[in-house]
Amino acid sequence: MAGMTFWEHLDVFRRSLLRVIAVWVLLAVGFFAAMPWLFDHVVLAPCHHDFVFYSLLHQIGETVGLSGDFFDRRFDLKLININLASPFFIHISTAFWMSVVASAPYLVYEVWRFVEPALYPNEERNVRVALGLGTLMFYVGVAVGYFIVYPLTLRFLASYELSAQVENQISLNSYIDNFMMLILAMGLLFELPLLAWLLSAMGFIDRVFLKKYRRHAIVAIFILAAIITPTGDPFTLAVVAAPLCLLYELGILLVKKRKQA
Asked: Engineering a disulfide at 145: which of 30, 45, 180, 186 sits with its beta carbon 3.0 to 4.6 angstroms away?
């Protein structure tokens, strides 16, 4: 690609973009067709007491003697719909976002195909590792968001009472908006080690810098965890904060050491 003109580069990019869009559309059609089952068994699974993480919480509570709403098996949430067209549009949007998440490896592959001809041999390995690690960490973050962060947030907010005179009735729109936002946010947060590596490669930060501000970062992580899961339960806070602290430590391992003068 080194000898290509700007317009030739643009044409290559256009073809890559069209292939990505085609994959998104095909996956979205498949998810749309399977959505009734996916909605009942995947999207709405955190609404029921037999969700895998709730069972784990109950076992942890029994083992270490913890009690409270989060360790109780009794949890079943009934959603309501108040907008006529919402089920149809949510059907479409959920299928689309699932296709975006599922197509992440192919998107990374297209990015690699586009940049690989312009890389030097010693750069190819680093970029390949970075793209592979970024994809893996994104899916780990999505899994943490789906199995841990969102269920904890849902249980807290669904049972929170501002007043005994106000009955909580959770709408379908509200559930889906928070579901997508938190899960995708966790997927992006798990890209922090890759971001640290990129900033290090560009010379903005180094390992000494991250170690120096480790305590500040941990405080910021716990504040962020408190915002994501606004409960007064230290266990819940630790469950969310611990992976983020591990990500920060992974970032320290990935960035370059400061060059000696």
From this structure: 186
